[in-house]
Amino acid sequence: MEITGVNQYHLRYGMDDSFRPAWKPGHEQTEHEVLLFELETDAGISGVATASGFAGRIDYLELAELFLVGEDPRDIDRVRDKLDTLNLWGPRPWHFEVACWDIVGKDAGKPVYELLGGSGDPVPAYASTGERRGVDERLAYVEERVDEGFEAVKLRCHGDDPGPDLEVTRRIREAYPDLTLMMDANMGWSVPMVEVEPWSFGDALGVARELEAIGGIGWLEEPLDRRNYDGLARLREKTDVPIAGGEFNDGVHHFREFVKHGSLDVLQPDAVLATGVKGALTVAGMADTHGLEFAPHTWNDGLGFVANLHVLAATGARWCEYPIEPPGWTPETRDFLLEAPVTAENGAVAPPDGPGLGVELDWDLIHDLDES
Q1: CATH code for the domain in which residue 31 is found
Q2: What string of DSSP letters covers 229-297?
Q3: Which of 38, 96, 204, 244 could bond 223 through an S-S bridge, CB–CB 3.0 to 4.6 Å?
Q4: Which helix (H) or strand (E) holds 94?
């Protein structure tokens, strides 16, 4: 089998309500922009994957064709070698490996998680917020998620003054003493349209100490730059709150550095953004060997979420990140290019059990939205 062509679809989906992501202070998002790729083969099987965020705005179809056409999608190791070279010349290419796994699964008639030795059992999920909100709004949000069966919620703490976010966390802890709470600082990377002063080591330690006092904290995510291995290690030594990160690190070697320096308690690669599927499994092995937690990042789009869900199902991970921040960021908005959104039931998410990634795309909508 060989890849015979690459199709690209540039999609802008108008959201029903606006969304104000914590990692883009002052920015109001009204569209979900995604770049969808379809790899065609001479066997009549195609595989799909997406790039979202800023990569969703860049046209690199010719690069993809140059490196992928003529390759056997079943030879994942060779494909990864090609993608490693492509990584030097264009946006991160790991989503193309996801599309190859989709082809391999469809060819075998099995879901990706089964090919990886995983189970179709539901994975416990934490509700992952995306905005910074006040006490009353956030308490109402938490009440809804707890009623839906979630046993953990991730909050946001971004910007120069973390005080209001910590107060929200304290009030939630008072109302829900047994609920696991995570905190995401989003200090590991930045976006071009906003300027946020990165936390100093002292800032990060101060937040960690506040979270220690609140108690029941699953982890503090990305309190420092994603390549500050020594600073993260020093922070980890000085707090009892687990330190997490890695969503935007590029390649497995970055996670080797995390382990080597003792930087993190929780490794969070994203199969689409950071490592590919096989690389994510390698990181999961590192976590298991060194007694660390493995909890992949999933905040992108429906196909990206599903790709990471297959990885989660194959690794026995404790938590699946379930992005949900209504009314702007809902499962329907996140998964707009799928025929049906991936939903959580009783606070857990089961991987799709169809061949490959196991989901059907809404091709009528895709063709209507395509701007390529």
Answers
A1: 3.30.390.10
A2: HHHHHHHHHH-SS-EEE-TT--SHHHHHHHHHHT--SEE---IIIIIHHHHHHHHHHHHHHTT-EE---
A3: 204
A4: helix 94-108
pLDDT of residue 57: 66
State how far the Cα of 336 lies from the Cα of 358, in Å rounded to an integer.
Answer: 16
Contact present, 338 and 360 (Cβ < 8 Å):
yes
pLDDT digits over 306-336, tens only? Answer: 999 999 999 989 999 999 999 999 999 999 9
Q: The tokens of 226 are what? A: 């994603």
Q: Are 132 and 159 in contact, with CB atoms under 8 Å apart?
A: yes
CA 245 to CA 79: how far, in whole Å? Answer: 27
Task: Kindly report, residue by residue over 245-303, the tens digit of the pLDDT.
Answer: 999 999 999 999 999 999 999 999 999 999 999 999 999 999 999 999 999 999 999 99
The answer to whether 318 and 151 are in contact (CB under 8 A) is: no
Residue length of the chain:
372
Residues 33 and 125 in one domain: no
> pLDDT-derived band of residue 195, with 50, 70 and 90 as boundaries?
confident
Same domain for 178 and 266, yes or no, is: yes
pLDDT tens-digit readout, 229-250:
999 999 999 999 999 999 999 9
Q: Is residue 354 part of a domain?
A: no
Are 215 and 288 found together in one domain?
Answer: yes
- Is residue 12 in some structural domain? yes
pLDDT of residue 37: 96
Total number of domains in the chain: 2
* Neighbour tally for 360: CB within 10 Å: 11
CATH number for position 231: 3.20.20.120
pLDDT tier at 190 (50, 70, 90 boundaries)?
confident
Please tell me whether residues 74 and 215 are part of one structural domain.
Answer: no
**What residue ranges in the chain does DSSP mark as E strands?**
3-19, 29-41, 46-52, 123-128, 152-156, 180-184, 217-221, 243-245, 266-267, 293-294, 320-323, 348-349
Please give the residue range of the domain that contains residue 130.
Answer: 115-349
Res 52 pLDDT > 80: no
Structure confidence at residue 60 (pLDDT): 84
In a domain, 289, yes or no: yes
